Amino acid sequence: MLEILVTPSHSLLPTMGCVRLRPKLLCQISLVSSTGSITISPSQGRVFIHQPECAIVVGLDSTIYTISESQGMVEVSTFVQIPSAGGAPRPFSLSVSTEDNTAGSPADFEALRSHIIQFNTGDTVHNFTLTIANDGICEVPNENFIVNITVVSGTQPIFITTHRAHVIVNDMNEPECVPTVSFSSETYVAAESAGSVEVCVILNIPYSFVLEFTINARDIGSATAGVDFVSGKWKTYILPGATDRCINITILNDDIALEENENFAVEIVMASVPTLQQLLKLSLLIVTLLLSHLKRHCTE
User: Fold this and answer.
1) Pairing with 97, which of 3, 83, 162, 267 sits 20 to 30 Å away (CA)?
2) Are both 42 and 72 inside the same structural domain?
């Protein structure tokens, strides 16, 4: 069992205004083992108090900053609240540093290392700029990094209310980053004797996630599934960093001599983005395949 012993060091004398700006020792605490079988290190500590009416209050003006990648930079503000007693604050300085999170420097932003902000007498706000890199890749989910402030100099008590904030780089706010897939062509032409036709799906921009979708071949008019082509649904995907995916659809040779060109439909019936399916805008395009049926013995 541990016991906590509190030993008053001295009584607190009343103060006038902010005469006593340094924190004052309130008491000393000790941890003692009643059985003597526990080693405690350290066994003593100190408790301090301060006068909040005498302290300068500083901080970041937000805990979250959101910026579109194409904006290139975000302005961050640090503020000062003048204490209610003791007059205007004396000069002091803050240090600003960034920290990688899901976004990393230098690929996603320009890092700050011990960037100094000097507050002089009477200053209440200072701004600094964080530079965002446009890497041309739409990250999902949005990436973020961290900015921190610390006090590095000053001659009076300084209390930081908000010392840490997240900067969110909002790729999904960019029009070109709305996930959109479509066929590479609205019409594909294939001879019946070719045996298959290649159909390609394209993505508008490289992404950092796997895009899954399903291609469906079905009757739409004159071509008949099972006679002229093989119908079905094929689940496929576009890998991170890629922008297209192609599949082959089987064409059947029915060996009918006198036959007009026929067609059937190929469509994208489903696509998914992990955790962000609601943001996917899909181009559901009907693709027509023209089957050339001109045989050697059908020249008349």
Assistant:
1) 83
2) no
Question: What is the SS3 assignment for 173?
Answer: helix
241 is in which domain, residue-wise?
178-292
pLDDT at 146 over 90: yes
Is there a contact between 138 and 97 (Cβ–Cβ < 8 Å)? no
The answer to whether residue 87 is domain-embedded is yes
Cβ atoms of residues 51 and 15 within 8 Å = yes
Give the tens place of pLDDT for each residue, 254-296: 776 556 788 888 888 766 654 444 344 444 444 455 554 443 3
What mean pLDDT do residues 103-111 have? Answer: 92
- Alpha-carbon distance of 169 to 187, in angstroms, equals 39
How far, in Å, CA of 78 to CA of 149, rounded?
9
Report yes or no on whether pTM surpasses 0.70: no
Contact of 202 with 182, CB cutoff 8 Å? yes
How many domains, the chain? 3
